[in-house]
Amino acid sequence: MRRKALEIKKKILDILKKEKELSLRELETKVNTNNKTIMAQIEELEFFDKIIVNQYSKNKKNGRPYTTVKLKYQ
After folding, report:
1. Whole-structure pTM over 0.90, yes or no?
2. Of 17, 25, 35, 69, which sees the most CB atoms within 10 A?
3. How confident is the model at residue 61 (pLDDT cuts 50, 70, 90)?
4. CA distances to 2, 11, 13, 40, 65 from 18, in Å
5. Where are the alpha helices (DSSP H) in the chain?
6. Distance CA 53, CA 61 (A)
7. Domains of the chain by range and CATH?
8. What letters, b where the CB count within 10 A reaches 16 and e where it falls short, cover 34-53?
9. How far, in Å, CA of 36 to CA of 58, rounded?
C-alpha cells in the first residue's frame, strides 16, 4: 500500500528527533522508501524551516560527497 506524503514527513521528523543527524542514505533505510521520495519530502521540510540540510564534499570513509539532515529546533 502506498503511503501518503504526510505520513512520510511525520516519520522523517520522528526519526530525526531520536537520531539527531542522519545521512540521506540512512534516512532512506529507516523510513523504508526510495531516494526520490526522501529528496522531495526533505525539500519541503527545509522550505518550511523544520530541518537543516548539510552537504559535504568528502566522506572520510570513501571520499564521496554526502548530505546529512537534522532538525532545526531540538
Report:
1. no
2. 69
3. confident
4. 25, 11, 9, 22, 25
5. 5-19, 24-31, 35-47
6. 20
7. 5-71 (1.10.10.10)
8. eeeebeebbeebeeeebbee
9. 22
